[in-house]
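Appendix B, record 7
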Amino acid sequence: MLVFILNAGSSSLKYQLMNPISKEVLATGLCERIGIDGILKHEFGDNKLTLEVSMPTHKEAIELVLKTLIESEGKVINSIDDIDAIGHRAVHGGEEFASSVMVTPKVIETMKKLIPLAPLHNPANIMGMEICQELMPGKPNVAVFDTAFHQTMPDYAYMYALPYEQYTKHGIRKYGFHGTSHYFVSNEARGMLDKKHNTRIIVCHLGNGSSVSAVLNGKCIDTSMGLTPVQGLMMGTRAGDVGAGAISYMMSQEKLTIDQALDIMNKKSGILGISGKSSDLREVLQGMQDGDDRCRLAVEMVAYNIKKYVGAYVAALDGVDALCFTGGIGENSSLIREIVCAGLDGMGLIIDPTKNNKRSGKARDIATNSSAARIFVIPTNEEYVIANDTYKIVSGLEK
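Structure tokens (predicted):
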């Protein structure tokens, strides 16, 4: 089976063509600057292809991708008929979707009702589904939700201590994100532990967007992101946890509207806001090495925030069997892993400096032999989760 995996954003879209049974990736790529000028970056095998083509809308972008897969020098299949199904990343499923589902008119209608919870993401996700239905009629489409994995959280973990009516009337609660990554990594960790039952796993998905989850016996019981992705860890440009009083005071002092305050918290805060240099941790780490004190502060804040959540989730899980690092920062920054794990010996987490500093694109254990709990670095694979869920639903293996 070949699954076309689509992640449609507001002005971009990512895609892969994958066989979920063999895990073979035939092609992967990115369309950028949709509605502006248009750039397609297409990779297949060891080859790369970049095209500058006008993409007024997402429809032209998806048409170009399909044409590239079939006709151009980036060809990997003979026709659209070779594509068996389309799997879509869907950001917000609210409480309505606790698992991946076949895309139907009712599903799209429900997702439209959830747009207030994800105004930047859900409209683009829906658009991708509708365009694929138009361009590839009869092909099954499956929606895989970022929030679905976290729907197993107990009510005392996902509720905010606001008047209860804010939940019943408006659905204001913690939902969590990066669910496909947390699912994949925690499941891989269970395999590495060779222990499918009684597992207590903490997953740190660390990138430009970051979140931590506590996973008990394969089910999420808590996660750091909330109603929106801005809650939780300090991130590339997101503030993470900030007291409501600090926000209202900032708004008062700066004479800001709600939208202006949200723009600051989502796009001008985090690593960028503290360092004043970049949202890219690699540049900030270099700045710290060069003696920039604000870069040093940003790095230490990032690591401290992660460590606080790790400690909290060890308590929530009543112990820990494995701490996992994934995502661009989690997989590649040995220094962040080192700082996070420093002083966690009492929790049974002892990092091995030599193992930690070794580069590898594969899943590995970086704990000492004497560590009571394991510390894993596991490359995430969200696209495989989308492709595999699509395969199972289309094949009737998951009902």
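Remarks on this record: The mean pLDDT is 95. Residues 61 and 159 are 40 Å apart (CA to CA).
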